[in-house]
Amino acid sequence: MSEQFAEVIVDVPSMQTNQPYTYAIPTEWIGQVFPGMRVIVPFGKRKILGFTTKILSKRPGVSFKIKEIEEVLDLTPVLNTEMLEMASWLAKWTFSFKISCLQVMLPAAMRASYNKTIKLTSTDVSEEVKQLFDEQNEVKFDSKELSADVFKKLSKLSREKKAEVIYQVHDRARTKKVTVIKSLLNTQEVQKQKELLRVNADKLRLLLDFLGKIGSQILTQKDAIKKTGLSAAVFTQGEKKGWLKKEKVEKYRDPYRDAEIKRTKPKQLKAAQQKAVERIDHSIVQQQDKVFLLQGVTGSGKTEVYLYTIACALKNKQTALMLVPEISLTPQMVRRVKSRFGSNVAVLHSGLSEGEKYDEWRRIERNDATVVVGARSAVFAPLENIGIIIMDEEHETSYKQEDMPEYNARDVAIKRGSWHHCPVVLGSATPSLESRARAQKGVYEWLRLDERINGQPLPEVQLIDMRQELKRAPAVDISTPLLDAIKQRLEQKEQVVLMLNRRGYSSFIMCRECGFVLKCPNCDISLTLHMDSHSMKCHYCGHEEPIPRTCPSCQSKKIRYYGTGTEKVEQELQQLLPETKILRMDVDTTRRKGAHAKLLRQFGNKEADILLGTQMIAKGLDFPDVTLVGVLNADTSLSLPNFRSAERTFQLLTQVSGRAGRADKLGQVVIQTFNPKHYAIQLAKKQNYEKFFGIEMNMRHRGGYPPYFFTTQIVTSGPNEADVAKKMFEIDGQLKQVLSSQAVILGPTPKPIMRINNQFYYQLVIKYKKEPELDAFLEDLLLNSQKEARQKLKLKIDRDPIDFI
DNA sequence: AGCACGCCGACT
DNA sequence: GTCGGCGTGCTC
């Protein structure tokens, strides 16, 4: 082979560089560079990281001069064919840069860190200038770290060629190495060596005894030192004598190692579980890339079904991927999986350090772990030969990434399923309407678990009409019936969980007399309060009207903006129940790493009587002594200017209700609401998902929202409002040419929080069923938006946005 | 993204 | 005159 070239995607996230660049492979590397490796390449004056995507054996006929790859960082590809193809698909699907898609699939440790230094090369400079440099005449050259003054002086030197700027790229990935000890002697040899020892060679004798004892076992030097009390020097001596061998071995930073986990046996399955397992196992064995919707009420044993099917995949000599929302990836959850599959399990979540994440990734990549449990980004775990992909709580919106690339792990999971010819199981008690509708149409196979494992009834749910109760409530946020229930439970030495629904805090107006919420006449969506313009605005269509002084429905003056904080409630509650220990769990108290788990542990140890928190307490926690769950304000999420508000409210209430009385004690749920008649609340009370599904589908159909229509959101932003608006209306005009009459455009409208960091935001939402031209148009739009060099004007496209406020 | 090049106003 | 402000275009 005489020459080789590589196509490289460079680490420059911009539209203009969103294409492969061709580099020559250095002679010494020819034949050893493959697609999916990380390389360092010269790019302009700089050196940057890149990913090889294609290897060419012929010099391409191009006019530009081809530079050489500077360094190859990996000996084997870090991204396989599946991942490379996935990256291309993802870039197109999410309108993202290829480089962002490649990076998102790897642990952060495998990204590059860039360093710039400047070296003085001339002696013809003033003393003052010399002072700026160190002994090697070098100094860090970073506009952010240096004062503007110094930076200017250094830049000038560079321009005058009196100093040279040096660009460095570092691979942050470092493996941890550990020394292990292996005995090279058998029992007879140990005896023989012992006889040869001098009488006073006590240390060496002890070492020989130890070597005799461990036999062929390999253990770390650290452990050996601990066990024998001998120093490292003695082991070195032993190595010199040829008794033992020391080796450097890669060590994984295992975050869960200390907790020795007992292995548990599979539980006996109920008939419905058994049937679900059979259906899924069949698909695993037959290598069908089918999607299942596993719909099971809280406590119906979905997790056990997951574990069985994982076992089936493993038995089939395949691997398994299980996705869980970050928030329910608790130690209990991890223990449950580890106790079944032991050290085969790798866990990926945001609580791990960069190094830990990298090590878990390496374990998976080397097939040392065959079961992966993780949050959103774990969907890219480098598993091969996947036999089953599970997504628990599939309706959770946290599966969608908020920043580039804005992928939905559900889409990626299904894509991987079809690549690996394996089933994907979407599990939920309250499936997203999209998934449930697909199950209806037979696109997904529908599996149901309607009974709870222990056969106990769902907790009794009581609705408190706050329109009535507020007049005589002991506190603004707590009604008398709820307070009584709390007192009763505390007397019985049982625990209480109170949830404050904080979503949509302070953004809408509601009548405290009748529960009326001002809605848009065109969109059937709550209007949002704008204090800057003193008006109510619809973020979908742009409709605007004055803030009402009296309730349009009941003429009451008690119409005002609605919202409340956990701190305030905690105070109120403490006043009403001075003797009670309350734990507060919200964004403020859980900001620190591990704080979340600590609070839950405290509550689990019964160090507190009441756990008061926001949404985050609704998921995954399972405390046997909690017999009362209270929802202080069911309405906030209901009145969000969002077509999913009813769905979210229903899901949240259903989920939180499931938290009560999971053990042998019967649970009680109290929901305070200003809208006791609303179908989402009524049906959550009855835990009737199916009926909710029917009504909500009807609403979506009438409003033309998903799952009947696809949606794509376009957002432009920039420092000049007129420019931003103009661009948006321009796009609106172009879209009208491209789209068929079936499609609907909402907007353009300014975003509710119009100005963040002096940037103005405008948005537009396209609702459509089938628009074959749309993707090409949007791609073009994105490309031109940067080429137009209307710089400072940013454009973002979000396919299937979670919400568009 | 960065970096260079180039065109303008406002300083030693 | 030149310094440095930012707009424009390019990076294999």
From TrEMBL:
Keyword presence, Amino-acid biosynthesis: no
Keyword Zinc applies: yes
Binding sites annotated in the UniProt record for Zn(2+) 1: 511, 514, 551, 554
Domain Helicase ATP-binding: 283-449
Binding site for Zn(2+) 2: 520, 523, 538, 541
Domain Helicase C-terminal: 546-703
Stretches assigned to coiled coil: none
Enzyme nomenclature, EC number: 5.6.2.4
Stored CDD domains: DEXHc_priA, SF2_C_priA
Keyword terms, alphabetized: ATP-binding, DNA replication, DNA-binding, Helicase, Hydrolase, Isomerase, Metal-binding, Nucleotide-binding, Primosome, Zinc
Subunit composition and interactions: Component of the replication restart primosome.
Family: Belongs to the helicase family. PriA subfamily.
UniProt function note: Initiates the restart of stalled replication forks, which reloads the replicative helicase on sites other than the origin of replication. Recognizes and binds to abandoned replication forks and remodels them to uncover a helicase loading site. Promotes assembly of the primosome at these replication forks.
Entries under HAMAP family matching the protein: PriA
Protein name: Replication restart protein PriA
Organism encoding this protein: Ligilactobacillus acidipiscis DSM 15836
Gene that this polypeptide is encoded by: priA
